[in-house]
Amino acid sequence: MKRTAKLTAGVSATAMILASVAPAFAGELNLLTWEGYADDSFVKPFEEATGCKVSATYVGSSDDFAPKLAAGGGVFDLISPPSDSTAPLIAAGFVEPIDTSRIDRWNEIYDQFRSGESINVDGKVYGVPYAWGAIAFMYRPDKFDTPPTSLAALWDPALEGRISLWDDKSAIYVAARHNGNMNIYNLTDEQIAAAQTSLVDQKPLVRKYWSTAGELVDLYKSGEVWISNTWAGYQSALLADEGIEVVEFIPEENAEGWMDSFMMVAGTPNAECAYQFLNMAISEQGQCGVANVNGYSVTNPVAARNCMSEEQFTALHQDDPEYLNSLLLWENLGDRLQTYTNAWNAVKSQ
Amino acid sequence: MTLGTRIRTGLVLSPPLLWTIVFMFVPYTILLVYSFWRAQFPLFVPDFQLGNYRTLITDPQYLNVLLRTLKIAGLVSISAVILAYPYAYFLVFKVRRPGVRLALYMAVVAPLWVSYLLRAYTWKTILGTQGILNSFLISTGVLDEPSSVFLYNHTAMVLTLTYVFIPFMVMPIYAALEKIPPSLIEASRDLGEGAFATFRKVTLPLSLTGVIAGFTMTFCLSFGDFIAPFLVGGPDGAMVANVIASQFGAALNWPLGSALALVMLVLVLGIISVSDRFERLGHGRLE
After folding, report:
1. pLDDT per residue over A97-152, tens digit each?
2. Whether A233 and A272 share a structural domain
3. Bridge partners of A227?
4. How many Cβ pairs within 8 Å bridge chains A and B?
5. Of all residues in chain A, what percent carry a pLDDT higher than 70?
6. For chain A, which terminus, N or C, has the lower number of CB atoms within 10 Å?
7. Are both A55 and A173 inside the same structural domain?
8. Which domains does chain B have, with CATH numbers?
9. % helix, strand, coil for chain A, step of 5
10. What gap in Å lies between CA A295 and CA A316, rounded to an integer?
11. Do residue A196 and residue A153 come from a single domain?
12. pLDDT value at position A5?
């Protein structure tokens, strides 16, 4: 009995010490997001201005968000899934509606994104659009006599062992377009099976499926890979820093477009800090932050106009809604999601 | 047994028992329960059905991965035995100075203190197209241009896993060989058997328990590995653990992942009990 009492006293003393050490910040924010979306260049000033301490965990694939939340634990406050992966998050109740009246510059965001079905369900808004871009393709110009213009290059036996593809269900989108099925977000079971077959046929030519930005950069840097898909603007810039020249291109079969939104995890105790972060994210600070770090286009053209040079504004297609419309913007796959991911998993285990 | 001793025994046993229940029994039970559930958008729902196990049998991708994993784990264990046995034999019977023996033994065991990830990563820089091996082969004139055959395939995986897990082979074989009384070997020689016959009839049978223990450990460790396929495996390198990870991750199909994990657990337990039987059969028996 005595011993138990002592133990209890010891435990509570430890707890008190821990509690007194913990928060020097007004609040904290845990982000589950992409590399670059919590870069010090704009997050440090945010922390100083608001007293909200930001820590980030990075994902490698669009499919990493739902499983991490499904595992529970209440760790994350904000997540930034792309437009094709939001459906299960909303349907499973992992994210909560956002009060857009608390987002000061909400109306400046491209209407297409604000009203898009990926974040609007039953009249409620579940996300704040943050950045967008193309899943372009890129190659090493020193290895090609004639620049590739078609997805056929990714199935070219002459390039055996020099091809890489993103380890993501988007591989199905690529293969479907290669097969001439342009309705990549509404594929029938037969079309998905055909895409799966094409990817299996392609396997002997593939050096490695890449899963993080850093891995793809390494593959180009070490001379393993000459052609692949890429998060347009990001890896090519990282490679340029390493002195390796790559050229991005949109193939004849077109490219997908993606859009990431920040979503609030249901029941987050840090909603105050979260709203402050969301407001920062679509202001000049966050928009030019991600444009400068990742080379992505942004969702608030007004902010972009204010903080980008004319050159950057044009290069990121901020002045050109036609470019955005020409891309095959990722759509909500709904309950077809599993069929797509299953086909991609089958390719990998073959 | 009096009440007092019973309580005392209970107290001594309860922490490990509690540990086993909380960290082994409960998780595996949860896994078993999950394996009967059903994936349904957006997540999965409780159910009692064998659909997940049926999928594992009927969809060829799972059998494919399982066979590949068995092949890789088998190759790793065999190459580890081939390398580890002569090395341990050399250490025990040929190295006379204890200091040298210890140093050579530690040379194998010490890498265990370095992060597995780091050691696997090192192989990437050795085997890559612009890696150390290619540079060496080009500078010695063996190759004209860098070859890409060393990395991102099954061979690279077997090589990396063999390197990573070989200490688990050397240690038990070394221990088994060290325990053989020199008098037995001397007796065999005195009775007119040659060096090879002595090895075959005395040393090898007596060290077989070590080989089996090492083989089992190496096999089970590489069977469950998922880092090597990720780092040095190619597009066709996925092993069972990778598929389980992707079912719990990207595919968001925990019920199927649980079923696969249980199948894997049963296989590993089967291997361990078979090797246990072999070990007991071979224990201390000479021809």
Report:
1. 999 999 999 999 999 899 988 899 999 999 999 999 999 999 999 999 999 999 99
2. no
3. A139, A163
4. 90
5. 92
6. N
7. no
8. 52-281 (1.10.3720.10)
9. 45, 20, 35
10. 8
11. yes
12. 44
Both A173 and A212 in a single domain?
A: yes
Question: Is residue A1 assigned to a domain?
Answer: no
pLDDT level of residue B252 (50, 70, 90 thresholds): confident
Q: Which residues of A touch B248 (CB under 8 A)?
A: 67
Yes or no, beta carbons of B250 and A345 under 8 Å apart = yes
Query: Once rounded to an integer, what is the mean pLDDT over residues A176-181?
Result: 96
State the Cα–Cα distance between residues A199 and B103, nearest whole angstrom: 50
Distance CA B207, CA B185 (A): 13
State percent of chain B over pLDDT 90: 56
Number of structural domains, chain A?
2
Residue A67 belongs to some domain of the structure: yes
At B104, the amino acid letter reads: L
Better pLDDT: A104 or B279: A104
Structural tokens at position B268: 């590993």
Q: Is residue A100 part of a domain?
A: yes
What is the model's pLDDT at position A182? 93
Q: By C-alpha distance, which of A124, A119, A113, A40 is closest to A292?
A: A40
Interface test with A, best of B61, B68, B122, B153 (most A CBs within 10 A): B61
pLDDT of residue B1: 58
Instruction: Give the pLDDT band of residue A7 (cuts 50, 70, 90).
Output: very low
A334 contacts on B by Cβ (under 8 Å): 41
**Which of B41, B236, B247 faces A335 most closely, judged by CB atoms?**
B41
Residues A168, A311: one domain? no
Task: Give the per-residue pLDDT at A19.
Answer: 43
Cβ neighbours of A344 in B, within 8 Å: 250
**Partners of residue B42 in chain A, C-beta under 8 Å:** 66, 87-89, 91-92, 335
CA gap A184, A155 in Å, rounded: 19
Task: Tell whether B63 lies on the interface with A, counting CB pairs under 8 A.
Answer: no
- Closest-CA distance of chain A to residue B108, Å: 30
| Residue A322, domain member (yes or no) | yes
Do A34 and A260 meet the contact criterion of CB atoms below 8 Å apart?
Answer: yes
Cα atoms in the Cβ-side hemisphere of radius 13 Å centred on B155 = 6
Give B-chain residues touching A208 at CB under 8 angstroms: 152, 234-235
- Domain check: are A287 and A226 in the same one? no
pLDDT at B145: 85
Provide the ipTM.
0.82
Does pLDDT of A3 surpass 60? no
Cβ–Cβ below 8 Å for B43 and A337:
no
Q: A63 and B250: CB-CB below 8 Å?
A: yes
CATH number at residue A53: 3.40.190.10
Same domain, A242 and A261: no
Average pLDDT, chain A: 89
> Does A198 lie in the same domain as A269?
no
Of A125-134, A316-325, B269-278, the one with minimum mean pLDDT is A316-325
What domain range is A315 assigned to? 25-132+257-329
Mean pLDDT of B92-111: 91
Is A223 within 8 Å of B248 when comparing Cβ atoms? no
Q: What is the DSSP string of A146-193?
A: S---SGGGGG-GGGTT-EEEESSTHHHHHHHHHTT---TTS--HHHHH
Answer whether residue A1 shows pLDDT above 60: no
C-beta atoms surrounding B148 within 10 Å = 18
